[in-house]
Amino acid sequence: MHVFITGGTGLIGSAVVAELLAGGHTVLGLARSDASAAALEGAGAEVRRGGLADLDTLRAGADTTDGVIHLAFGNDFSSQEALAANIAEEGAALAALGETLVGSDRPLVTVSGTPAAPGRASTEADPLPTDGPVAGRSRSVAAVLDLAAQGVRTASVRLPRTVHNNGTGGFAGLLTNIARQSGVSGYPGDGTQRWPAVHALDAAVLFRLVLEKAPAGAAWHAVADEGDAVRDIAAVIGRRLNLPVETVPEATYGPLGQVFATDQPASSALTREKLGWEPAHASLLADLENIQP
């Protein structure tokens, strides 16, 4: 397939581009900057210049390719207003991509987080949250999946709280960055809440499998580690950075504080069974050993 991808130069996106190219596909990547364009070209992809707000550019990318993988999302988590703006921008982008693909039977693969299921690991059958700081993103993903009834082979890959590679990435990466800045490797609450995780290279394989063969309208879990206690994550970070490990106020994490404090283990049993996906790379706690002091 010739695949249009947004967010193709980030931690996850660069792994997905490499996986697609290694699997015999060709890639057209959206690039907002010269650096992103150079990275895509260096990886062997074609480039279409523009950002998520450039809806005509998105429509043209979807219209001239055999399928779409959407990964791009704004990186400003400084306030609830900034997070809401990121979600609104993504929602408009997904609507434009979806409208372009109606009636084509081509794939549109989008992304979200895994949901929380009180008292147990969430599964692919559990709904995304309809309230809280990321509820708008859930509505956008639901709208995409609904396009299965209009001739789009839609799918959602739900990513865990940390997608990591070489000791960085995801929520664990945010904990590391905050630890470097504050001098404390912190965690909210008592730290017993669990976060699922996956290596970026394993997640990339799942994106390819979903693009190639997933049925329309389904959600899949890119989960390798069902759930590590956040205080165990913070303990590795503290040891690697030689910093004290302590509980800190939930407000330390801004608009993501509520999410950081929630117990969110997740299962990928159905995804593994139906798509034959088997994670093969390092676990989160093992990968965090790559953090450099």
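[next item in queue]
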Amino acid sequence: MDEKRTVKVSKYLSKHLRHRPERLGITLDPHGWVEVDELLGACARNGFTITPEELDHVVAVNDKQRFAVDAGRIRANQGHSVTVDLDLPPAAPPSYLYHGTIAQALDSIRSEGLRPMNRHHVHLSPDRATAVRVGARRGVPVVLSVDAGAMHRAGHLFHVSANGVWLTDAVPPAFLRLRE
């Protein structure tokens, strides 16, 4: 499977497993899972055929490990705008986590902090390099350090998804520092 097809399938799956399952005619269970056969059938009925081998490839090689497969079911690891409970237990974060963004967002972030926007959680990276890649998707990246240890001590909950992305409800401005 070539890289262009891999990216196209990954984006298609992300769109429908995270944001628009109804457009495919599938229903995610309360934890975001859907049967693989149901998903592949729905994709084919909607004119975007994905073979089981292609699906396995995308799940295995996706650089962000966006998807999980278990017992014949698949789900997105995080990033949903539809209501799902990923059933992730609270976890103690490392002292610092990172968030990649762009300069145009800084004024809002400085005044309001990080908010989940149209998702359920704010996504934080475990290292600066990952945050740079995340921020670069929308332009020249800016990396913010999040004092996750202090947030945790102040009572903020954190969860870590299967692919290592840290999730929290919001990050108040007091816990943010611009990384130059």
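[queue empty]
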